[in-house]
DNA sequence: GCCAATTGCTTGAAGCCTAAAGAAATTCGG
DNA sequence: CCGAATTTCTTTAGGCTTCAAGCAATTGGC
């Protein structure tokens, strides 16, 4: 009894399995991400971060603030600033200062931006389908379930640390 | 019969499920990666790429060539060059030109590098264990299996494109 | 109304990353 | 043995990313 308590904190336990799982998860993501990245470049001469940002905005017809984008994309504020800058420059994004709060920048897709994104998104979806082509419907559902559980567990772990 | 053939190529099929799965996979990885990154910075003032590189070298006592590292880490050659440069500079890595092929650089951990890595790796393993803490042993095995399948499927898809 | 804390965003320094081009060494076909 | 192709690594330009510091606007306590 006392043992089981001390053990968790003191003794070096074997977590090689979790480690291997994490590495495999990372490998899968890196593999797919790299694939998507080079296809986006080849077909549309666009970078993955730009695509991701446009994807967020496509889901928000009324626009988003930079903070919203930053949270959704899980990247830093400064990162978003530069990304938006380049996309405004290229005519894909429209940027306005909020009427009610002059600190806030509201961005949304321009007509051009939306049109281009839709084209890219359609192909993108088929690439992703191809990536998972060998998984059965049951595999897909099961993987979804386990990743949901993983996400929850990871979030809990992160909040434990911040506490 | 003809239908099933045309359909796969022509008709816009619904692959929303695969798309959601990919986004969830990406979210999990980003979450965990961010967590590991900030912990490495806090505790050891080291970056994730440096840690990853040292992890590769820890598994290869006789050293590795830069190309080996590049393939293993799935990053570009130029990336490795810079990374190695900084780690040699900080005394963690040792770099020598191969005796048999003057193009080849062989790198390995120094005593300092190995000692520091071992300390980091021990903590790292416990962080990862914590991330997956809510998954049962069965979950872990099942997730491992499905990710193996995903990896194989993704590799197949990537090679189809390059073909 | 005022001042402190917070929030939203930008800036700057450093590092990471890729693609593409190029330099140097090796390998291989003939 | 020669030259073409390949391999290994570096360099360059451009972009992505973080952290930390800082500025401007708003909010909330008093």
TrEMBL record, chains A, B:
Instruction: Please give the SMART domains that the UniProt record associates with this protein.
Output: HTH_MARR
Q: Which PROSITE patterns match?
A: HTH_MARR_1, HTH_MARR_2
Pfam families attached here?
A: MarR_2
Q: Where is the HTH marR-type domain?
A: 18-152
Cite the entry's keywords alphabetically.
DNA-binding, Transcription, Transcription regulation
UniProt xrefs under InterPro entries = HTH_MarR-typ, MarR/SlyA-like, Tscrpt_reg_MarR-type_CS, WH-like_DNA-bd_sf, WH_DNA-bd_sf
* The name this protein goes by in its record: Transcriptional regulator
Organism name: Bradyrhizobium iriomotense
């Amino acid at each position: 009894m006392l043992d089981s308590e001390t053990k968790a904190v003191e003794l070096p336990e074997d977590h090689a399995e979790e480690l291997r799982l994490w590495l495999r998860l990372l490998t899968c993501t890196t593999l797919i991400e790299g694939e998507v990245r080079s296809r986006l470049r080849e077909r549309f001469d666009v970078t993955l971060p730009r695509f991701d940002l446009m994807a967020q905005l496509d889901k928000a017809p009324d626009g988003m603030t930079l903070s919203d984008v930053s949270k959704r994309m899980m990247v830093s504020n400064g990162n978003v600033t530069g990304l938006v800058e380049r996309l405004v420059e290229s005519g894909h994004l429209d940027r306005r200062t909020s009427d009610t709060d002059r600190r806030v920048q509201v961005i949304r897709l321009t007509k051009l931006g939306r049109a281009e994104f839709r084209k890219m998104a359609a192909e993108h979806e088929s690439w992703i389908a191809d990536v998972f082509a060998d998984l059965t419907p049951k595999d897909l559902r099961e993987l979804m379930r386990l990743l949901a559980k993983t996400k929850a567990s990871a979030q809990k772990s992160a909040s434990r640390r911040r506490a």
